[in-house]
């Protein structure tokens, strides 16, 4: 009996050990940072593991390790854009809001708008249209055309210059009601625009050629 009992106890310990090993999370590859930008052979860039103009929305979510929400936004001139937005993405120790612009044919966007909800007015003046489930599924295969990255912490001009070097050009915006101005730094080779907003926020916009 003692031999059988010892055998059973040993078997249980083996199962517990296997279960414990299975519960140990596998190591994750290090997340890329906003200044880790690679120019690809097609002259578009890759950032955050997303090759603009090539990586589809489904794969982009896998790279970001988070699910986004999709909608169509129409501006006051009725120009429509299809966007996937993330309220909080944590990559490389930085937390940020992120918006992906998806490349969708104009006729498809028009059809999606007809099926979408009535636009909800946003603070920017644009209207947000919620999509039906069928169209949300379609967007999973749509390529990412641009990324807007808004970190929760302000990135200083010195930090941006250290990471990206001198900009090709600097445009200064008109003063706001409080006399504060914004600056736009352009990096042509990277198709990158860095905006230092009048409110203190830093916005990085990556685009396709």
Explain what you see.
The chain is α+β, with helices and mostly antiparallel strands. Helix content is 26%, strand content 33%. It starts with a helix and ends with a strand. Mean pLDDT is 87; it is low at 13-28.
Report the principal-axis shape: globular
Helix residue percentage: 25-40%
What is the number of beta strands? 13
Q: What is the alpha-carbon Rg in Å?
A: 23 Å
Low-pLDDT runs of 5+ residues are: 13-28
Q: How many individual helices?
A: 5
Structural class determined from secondary elements: alpha+beta
Q: Which helices and strands appear, and what pairs or packs with what?
A:
Layout: H1 2-23, E1 38-39, E2 45-47, E3 50-51, H2 57-64, E4 69-74, E5 80-91, E6 94-102, H3 106-115, E7 120-121, E8 127-130, H4 133-139, E9 144-151, H5 157-164, E10 169-172, E11 183-187, E12 192-196, E13 202-207
Antiparallel strand pairs: 1-2, 2-3, 4-5, 4-8, 5-6, 6-9, 7-8, 9-13, 10-11, 11-12, 12-13
Tags for this entry?
single chain; 209 residues; alpha+beta; ten-stranded antiparallel beta sheet; three-stranded antiparallel beta sheet; 33% strand
